[in-house]
Amino acid sequence: MGFQTGNILEPSCGVGNFFGMLPEEMQGSKLYGVELDSITGRIAKQLYPQANITIAGFQTTDRRDFYDLAVGNVPFGQYSVHDRAYNKLNFNIHNYFFAKSLDQVRPGGVVAFVTSRYTMDSKDSTVRRYLAQRAELLGAGKTFEMVAAAMESKRLGLCQKSLFVVPNHLTEQWASEFLRLYPSANILVTTKKDFESHNRKKFCARIATGDYDAVIIGHSQFERIPISRERQERLLREQINEITDGIAEVEASGGERFTVKQLERTKKSLEARLEKLQAEGRNPGLTDLFLKQARKVLQAPEKGSVLEKLKQEPPERKPAAPKKREPER
Question: What's the pTM?
Answer without folding.
Answer: 0.51
